[in-house]
Amino acid sequence: xxxxxxxxxxxxxxxxxxxxxxxxxxxxxxxxxxxxxxxxxxxxxxxxxxxxxxxxxxxxxxxxxxxxxxxxxxxxxxxxxxxxxxxxxxxxxxxxxxxxxxxxxxxxxxxxxxxxxxxxxxxxxxxxxxxxxxxxxxxxxxxxxxxxxxxxxxxxxxxxxxxxxxxxxxxxxxxxxxxxxxxxxxxxxxxxxxxxxxxxxxxxxxxxxxxxxxxxxxxxxxxxxxxxxxxxxxxxxxxxxxxxxxxxxxxxxxxxxxxxxxxxxxxxxxxxxxxxxxxxxxxxxxxxxxxxxxxxxxxxxxxxxxxxxxxxxxxxxxxxxxxxxxxxxxxxxxxxxxxxxxxxxxxxxxxxxxxxxxxxxxxxxxxxxxxxx
Length: 373
Fold this sequence. Notes:
three-stranded mixed sheet; MutS, DNA mismatch repair protein, domain I; alpha+beta; Dna Ligase, domain 1; DNA polymerase, domain 1; 42% helix
């Protein structure tokens, strides 16, 4: 979808159409921009920018509060259209998805005809524009969908994907981000063509095990299938110790690492959890579980860690030896609120940590309480 939150606001409030719209809150608030209309982007306003910075760049813009319930409802309408076109839909976010159109030709014609029909139906039924990329794989389709926004339709050739991508800047590469693009630039790579042709030695020296994957993507190779699995009923991590542990500080450090991993997985699924469960296995082999239900669901690392630590502190028997420790969460709901639900939530920090770990590995950042001193 095109500037989804801002476009919904312009659709619902005709007086905002044609004006720069910044979704996030009042211009003097301490929050960040959730979405900016294309009129606002002309001034340099973009998502995740502090609202006060956006106000300096675009003082005459219309600053509006987030209406997440409304965006979620519009999203349901859009995804209902997706579901009519293909049984294989992989949501990426509230306003974006992959559709596998294989075998749907008799219903909707070829890929281009299907894309045109999809865009027309969304416009007619939802009153918004969508940009579509058509390609033989997910990576190229994602890039194509971004090339002619808003209201674009870009078709990548079935043959010649490498040539199609070659002139594009590496900043267009999905998942690379500004820092990744800067790292590529430092080794003399600024386009897809240069990345595709770079020596393996140069790339491995700069990016390690990710080098081969980057080069495959630059050549338009992506074998990933559409993933349509329903969300999990619970998410958890546990560890069995090679030797029983009695030291409480050591157990708390392990617990923090486990809860941190669980929180990251909850965010990847686009969910929030309300129930936290602690699992303890005492020596020789007695297993107990204890749980707590939060006042409001969360996907924040800090609240889940706090709740897990409180459970362990309350239920760990003094002097007991532990052979297994685990944390799991359940009671899921969609991430229906954009900003923190409690004062301990730090969504910007959690998002930054997730991105760094995704790019450089889970060991790239660790919480201080986990590091042995």
